[in-house]
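Proteins fold reproducibly. Take a tokenised chain:

. . .
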Amino acid sequence: MKKDYSSIIPTMRYNDAAAAIDWLCKAFGFKQHLVVQGENQSIEHAQLIYGNSMIMLSSVNDNEYGKLIKTPESFNGYNTQAPYIIVEKIDEHYKKAVSAGAEMLIDIKDEDYGGRGYTCKDKEGHIWNFGSYNPWIESN
């Protein structure tokens, strides 16, 4: 029987992807799964994991796909989407992100629909949502 491996994996671009990888691992607890170096210290492709989830990122480039994906900086700091990542120990996660210099946009709080969470920006302006609410197992 074939297993269903359907999944959603956000992809992002960073001006300094190598620094972003280091910071995302330090601040948010991601782990490097695969990092492919490109030319001139760039990152051609990277996969970072958190639990059983993954994000993909690379350095800004003007290849076929890179022309489609922009950084928040290129939109005057605006984002068009922001991942939500389920975190079991949200208060510890929040403290780690704060100590690493994440810019808090919505401070940690209990949510009316359940769980607890916060919203922040990373060093290049990508918005991240972290929370203990798991919509797969909880409902209002």
Notes: The first strand starts at residue 11 and ends at 14. The mean pLDDT is 93.
